[in-house]
Automatic annotation (TrEMBL):
InterPro entries: Ergot_Alk_Oxidoreductase (IPR051604), NAD(P)-bd_dom (IPR016040), NAD(P)-bd_dom_sf (IPR036291). It comes from the Bacteria. The lineage of its organism: Bacteria, Bacillati, Actinomycetota, Actinomycetes, Pseudonocardiales. This is Uncharacterized protein YbjT (DUF2867 family). It comes from Saccharothrix violaceirubra. Residues 9-183 form the NAD(P)-binding domain.
Length: 288
């Protein structure tokens, strides 16, 4: 018998993919999202009234009967670590046995990517509680690079000539399913990456090929990066996260290439070029 699994963020890109895979495998699951109306209708799945991670009472109600939890990291905020801790506390109070947490590649207390520090603090909190958990340190999603490219066909940022091992969201979902259903992964921290680490100039070349228009990478200094993003009206912590994600590429912190996808799923991870071929919607804004 498979355990009852609860998927947070089940209306999102990763949570939704995991939910569909579990439904196809006949796994009983509870789907949680802030907006329950956005949740997919899947066989064997119960859609739960939405609850924010910071809502202890709501989270406990959402997790009733849960044995295994996929904790998709909360949207970036100044209080994200506190939100994660509250959700973890609610899960443990409801008797959740195992937690699979979506972390980020290179997570560390002092990593360059500021949001990566939130993931490290969350992992440390999980470890301190004593609950059985798996941390999936996903690399930057392959879909992020076309999204970061402007409609003018320029990918800008202070990444220098650094490399990033972008990973397909489908591969992340496949690994998450394996970790949810197999307790042999408990206690592991898995780097979930694509098959190679590419520069942003190489990413631009791939985008040029699929779009049929020139796409280029334009390196920026740190000052230029902050200045070019100052007009979005985003809070300082969010802008810092945007800029430092590129800087983490420059430092080499996101160049790690692992075999976690192949080991967990039995298939090779998808290369960036193949991802673009299979997902033209991700670069539709770049069509001439």
């Amino acid at each position: 018998m498979n355990p009852v699994v609860t998927i947070t963020g089940a209306s999102g890109g990763i949570g939704g993919r995991v939910a569909r895979r579990l439904a196809a495998a006949g796994v009983a699951q509870r789907l949680v999202a802030r907006n329950p109306a956005a949740l997919p209708a899947l066989p064997g799945a119960t859609r739960v009234v939405g609850a924010a991670y910071s809502d202890v009472v709501g989270m406990r109600a959402a997790l009733v009967g849960t044995e295994v939890l996929l904790l998709v990291s909360a949207r970036e905020s100044a209080d994200r670590v506190r939100e994660h801790r509250t959700a973890i506390d609610a899960a443990i109070a409801e008797g959740v046995h195992r937690i699979v947490y979506l972390s980020f590649l290179g997570a560390a207390a002092d990593c360059t990517f500021t949001f990566g520090r939130d993931h490290w603090h969350t992992e440390e909190y999980l470890r301190a509680t004593g609950v059985r958990f798996v941390a999936l340190r996903d690399s930057l999603y392959s879909s992020a690079l076309p999204a970061m490219t402007g409609a003018d066909g320029v990918l800008r940022g202070p990444a220098g000539g650094g490399r990033v091992s972008v990973v397909s969201p489908d591969d992340v979902a496949d690994v998450a399913v394996a970790a949810l259903l197999d307790p042999a992964y408990d206690g592991q921290v898995l780097d979930v990456t694509g098959p190679e680490a590419i520069t942003l100039a190489e990413a631009a070349a791939h985008l040029t090929r699929v779009t049929g228009r020139p796409v280029s990478y334009q390196p920026e200094t740190e000052a230029e990066a902050y200045a070019s993003r100052s007009g979005y009206g985003a809070p300082e912590f969010e802008v810092a996260g945007w800029v430092t994600s590129y800087q983490a590429i420059a430092t080499g912190e996101l160049a790690v290439v692992s075999d976690a996808v192949r080991r967990a799923t039995g298939h090779a991870p998808q290369a960036f070029g193949d991802f673009l071929d299979a997902n033209p919607n991700t670069w539709a804004h770049l069509r001439v």
